[in-house]
Amino acid sequence: MSSQQEPEQADVQSLSYEAARDELVRVVAELEQGSATLERSLALWERGETLAARCEEWLVGARARLDAARAASTDADTPVQDGAAR
Fold it and tell me: Which residues contact 66 (CB under 8 A, 6 or more apart)?
């Protein structure tokens, strides 16, 4: 079972945030229907976990970029003290 899912799991790393999020929404919707077999439900759950982790990676990266931009903006706005040049 695991070797069958490896290519699927590997391709998650190449997904954009939006693509991973959209697929995660589809996975959740299918799980919520409750009509899948146990094996299919487990595969969907595992896929959903992988997709959620990918979305989290994107969000953490975006937050880091925003924090860095804010820090750079704050540093640029800091007044010069004691006549020192910037």
Answer: none
